[in-house]
Design a protein that fits this description.
The protein has no helices and 11 strands. A hairpin with a 6-residue loop joins strand 5 and strand 6. The radius of gyration is 13 Å and the shape is globular. Helices cover 0% and strands 49% of the residues. Strands 2, 4, 5, 6, 9, 10 and 11 form a 7-stranded mixed beta sheet that branches. It is an all-beta fold and 124 residues long.
């Protein structure tokens, strides 16, 4: 199973971006999808997660109300819609897939597969 994150780029504060996470070698519907991010000099942190059925989702407090996670199992792609971006959202964003069907928490050990990351830079 491989994950490919894409959609990152440079955006001004207050702007929006949509990140994509495409899975190959497996069916997206099998997995919970999580998004994490790592800013320079900081540890990787949880951003959001969504269970395979789309019925349960979880967000970090820092992104609640601004980010939205979704998925299209038929397209084998998950999304992270980011709005009202702030400079502190600047980071490399990673998507991950977990086999636990209803886990949407921040523990990285619960996610079995990871993508390579896509850079998001928010300018002031």
């Amino acid at each position: 199973v491989q994950l490919q994150a894409s959609g990152g780029g440079l955006v001004q504060a207050g702007g929006s971006l949509r990140l994509n996470c495409t899975i190959s070698g497996g069916a997206l519907s099998t997995y919970t999808i999580g998004w994490f991010r790592q800013a320079p000099g900081k540890e990787r942190e949880f951003v959001a997660a969504l269970v395979w059925s789309g019925t349960m989702r979880n967000y970090a407090d820092s992104v609640k109300g601004r980010f939205s996670i979704s998925r299209d199992n038929a397209r084998n792609t998950a999304y992270l819609q980011m709005g009202s971006l702030k400079t502190e959202d600047t980071a490399t964003y990673y998507c991950a897939a977990g086999l636990e069907p209803y886990y949407t928490g921040p523990s990285e050990s619960k996610y079995d597969y990871w993508g390579q990351g896509t850079q998001v830079t928010v300018s002031s």
